[in-house]
Amino acid sequence: MTLGRLLVASIAVAAWFEIARFVTNYVVNRLAIPPDASVYAGIPTRLLTRRLVEALLLTLIASLWFDSLGSGGWWLLFLLIGALVTSPKWFVVGSDAARKRALVADSLFDIARYVIAGALLAWRLS
């Protein structure tokens, strides 16, 4: 695997992560949470840097997967990675119905984000 291919794949995944963040924020904020609820407060700083590092690490994992084990079962690997990343959100305390809807929507979008990123990486690295 060349460094150039890894960088191009990382940039593609980072771009997808940013697009997915906007879609997730739209759906969670518009559909799952009432307009007067304040479930999320503030936007994390250095979000772009975080997405780039996350995309680079995911690309390296994908590179190891596709170079050593082939391309079969990639969707299960990325589904499990997505579930692992979103699992801390499942243990947030709160009985508010809006908070539960937002949690379910956010968790599903996080898992879908990783599976779609896996599809991008399967396309670019296989």
Descriptive notes:
The protein has 126 residues and is an all-alpha fold. It is 75% helix and 0% strand. It is built from four helices and no strands. It has helices spanning 3-32, 47-68, 74-86, 97-125. Helix 3 runs antiparallel to helix 4. The mean pLDDT is 79.
Order of helices and strands: HHHH
Distance between the termini: 10 Å
Q: Main sheet, how many strands, which sense, barrel?
A: none
Please give the radius of gyration in angstroms: 16 Å
| Helix percentage | over 70%
Characteristic key phrases:
mainly alpha
Detail the topology: elements first, then pairings:
Layout: H1 3-32, H2 47-68, H3 74-86, H4 97-125
Helix pairs in contact: 1-2, 1-4, 2-4, 3-4
Brief overview, please?
The protein is an all-alpha fold.
